[in-house]
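Aim 2, interim progress. The first record below pairs a target sequence with its structure tokens.
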Amino acid sequence: MPCLLISVRFHDGRYHGQPDWPPSPARLFQALVAGAARGDALNEQARHTLTWLESLEPPVIAVPAAWPGQFFRNFVPNNDLDAVGGDLARAGKIRAPKPIRPMLFDADTPLLYVWTFDDAPNARVQAGCVCSVAVHLYQLGRGVDMAWAHSEIVAQEAAEARISEHGGAVHRPSSSAGGTPLAIPVNGTLESLVQRHRQMQGRFQPLYETRPGRKGTSQTVVAGQVFMQPARPLIRHVAYNSPPTRLLFDLVGEIASWRLDHIVALTKRIRDAATERLQRQRPAMAEKIHNAIVGRRDADEADKAVRVRIMPLPSIGHRFADHGIRRILVEIPPNCPLRADDLAWAFSLPLVISEDGEIRSELVPTDDRGMLAQYGIDLPEPSYRWRTVTPVALSSAEARRRIDPARGIVDAKAGTERAKEERYAAFAAVQALRHAGVQARPLDVQVQREPFEAKGMRVEAFAPETRFAKEQLWHVSMVFAEPVHGPLVLGDGRYLGLGLMAPVRGDWRDLITFSLPADTRIAVAEREPLLQAVRRALMALSRDEKGNVPALFSGHEPDGAPANSGQHRHIFLACTDHDRDGWIEQLILVAPWACDRSLRPRWEERAAFNRIAASLKVVRAGRLGVIHLRPTATDQCLLGPGQVWKSHTEYRPARHPRRTQDVAASLRDDVEAECGRRGLPRPAVEVSELSIGPKDGIVARLYLRFAVAVTGPILLGRDSHRGGGLFEVAG
């Protein structure tokens, strides 16, 4: 397919068109319209050409590396004439500050916009006309952003080659919710711009007023002016993703595998060698190269966002994997001031190992990206649970108290002190997420000094020859409220190979908990209508394009009949009230195989539960109102493990007792049978409360005493899918 490529160059390496960077396709379209117009007139050929251009799919954009310039304020008249009685002559009295911070970049590197279009004769004619229109472009952004453009029609292969050779950040339109939203033209954008231009010419309209004249007559006079706000142009926003460039290298030679505890020394050796090699090749850019690879001492968040990250990848993913380092990943952010091809050359280097200059290792580029999946990279599905392969270096303020080995017994820490240190470390790990730019909210954070895998190493092994004390290092495990893509690297040592995390395989959540807003108070007695509304919301989220709802969420077969397979294959819903104040605190969604251990879920069922249940945000519950849910951690008393469990909500037996049978004995038999059907051990059942309602309806509160500790959640009985028969560990 042919492509229309518009190359835009600026007279100065500055762009003031806040707040979008890169300049959006809609802004370029406006600049083309302004260049094609002669005064307020736009000829018919230009109209046809621009109308064709606005109908194309969003373009791919390649821009040079950019960084924020000096911030300043410009005071301009504010559109608040009421403050000066509507007097235009006094508009200068109401000046307001306008913040301006231009984006700086290399003016010799152009901006590329690439549209793909059908290879039809008329389309090629219109694309050629766009090339004629683009010649008249004179600015892009604000009035001070003078620019010019050159257009050409190229083959798709040639366009991709131009983009790859560009060396800057490449932004591609995406269907996902993430990314940078950029405005694009749509059908009707040109006409809306023409209409807006006309309205701008007449935005100040005279205000007429009728006043009494002489001898009982009246006259119409101009009493002032009325400001008419022009209509906004017709545009829409599309998410653009600009992933970092990732270069992968193999370590080859006599030393082709480095020990895990030497990861910091290896990272420094590679970093310094690549920096020196590139500085020798580009001496005029020595400082810029140093700042982009090694980093500045006084670096702020903007500097870190454009810094190259070197990540040695230990071999993991199999129980026989030795965690040796054989591959190096170099991640180049989109706005890095260095070209990706220059960095690829700089990191393809030999490593001097010994003092006599002997070369025993070498970095060789590789296309084998299989190892990246072990670190959550290039996977279609992100993960909820992550844990460290190399320890996270937390701030020194959150370090553990150091104990002199000679006084180990005298200065031994009590359990309360250890728990306090772990709480501080967990808090510091959450702060490290923010510093690393991770927006996902952690639900559960665990810290420890031991590795999570058998071939891993304790944190003390990573401290020698680094600037981090061993008390600052922690192995961390996190569970997030929403799934996270890799790579995930945290802590103060994230540019030195520390803090590297890997997703946990088989990462499925079988229980998802939501908290209700503080201003939403729903009584426990309203449990039934609330859970009915939740089930309806889940059914709506899971409905396909044909209107079919999976039995996992509906509890019914495709023909509408109840799912009576004898197994509990649809979702369990429950509410909690741990404070016993009569108000619902949490909403719990439980996968059926988590309550019925006899089930063997399919992969598709696990994926559907995780995707649909985690996407629940709002429940419209009729008279109970609109409820906004927030993911939260599940109370440990519902998960266990424990040997003694007590009723959190009333238990209703699955079967009614015979008239001649003792109610309490029948109830115990029913509970034991329920536990057997759910794959639980047979418990000793103690009835703490028992009531018999109308039509022999039995409601009870129980204690379940198991011979061994069992894990939750435990939901039993006739109404267990509606929140009944929920048990918690007896404290």
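The second target in this work package is listed in the same format:
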Amino acid sequence: MKDSIIISILGVIQLFISLLYQIFILNIFGTSRVLDIYFASNTINFIIVAVSISVMNFAITPILIKYYKKNEKKKLEELFSSLFNILFMCFFLFGLFQYFFAPYILQLILPGFSIADLEIAIQLFRLQAFLSVINILSALLLAMHYTFNFLYRTIIFPLIAQVVQLLFVWIFYKQFGVFALMYGLIISQFITFVLFTFPFIKLYKFKIIFNSELKDASRKIFPLIISSSFSRSNILVDRFFASTLSAGSITLLQYGEKIIQIINEFINIKIRYAGFMTFIVYI
């Protein structure tokens, strides 16, 4: 009960800082076209984050916990290393695709943007091209933290990264403008990745073992990736049409979605962080 209360409090603090950051950048840039461009350039990365966390939580975490409960350390290490290496290679290639084809991708999903808007969006989009690698690997490492019951770290580490992100933007937004938001995001996600990595460095092996465990995990991953991608694709449709509207439309849409997300997170936070390990035992 004590752990549940502490984790819930930490989760509320994390949500509060996230809300504070959103209010802060809104006060700086307002509902302007500049902020529209930033949020639009972040569309693909947002979808990847949402899908990767969902897939890892529902497909991979139960398998890892099963091996952990059975004390099958070798299988756990092999599956973790294999998934880590496969995901790295796949999303690195995706990052290359995103970087080199950025103009074509953005012209397709943001038809209402002017040439000047697209030029800025392309720069921002390319800056985060390889964030998808960090995002998917951080999701896998998050699953490992759930497996080893490091629940406090799953909140404290992102909390530290969020504070650093807020401070960076606050100090440098006058110097870098909207690019300070992107630099802050990159720094925040990199810090989260590094902190998540430390406990499992010794478990990692630079190899891929194509065994039954990997095949079982793959059978569960790919259907979830497809279904989750479709469920999250509404944001692409929203921003496709919002790009053709007046300045500030994408920003207002983003904050509407953010308010709903924060409310949902606040309601579910105790279940997600404190109740997860209790339920998973009975799977």
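The chain has a mean pLDDT of 84. This observation will shape the mutagenesis plan for the next reporting period.
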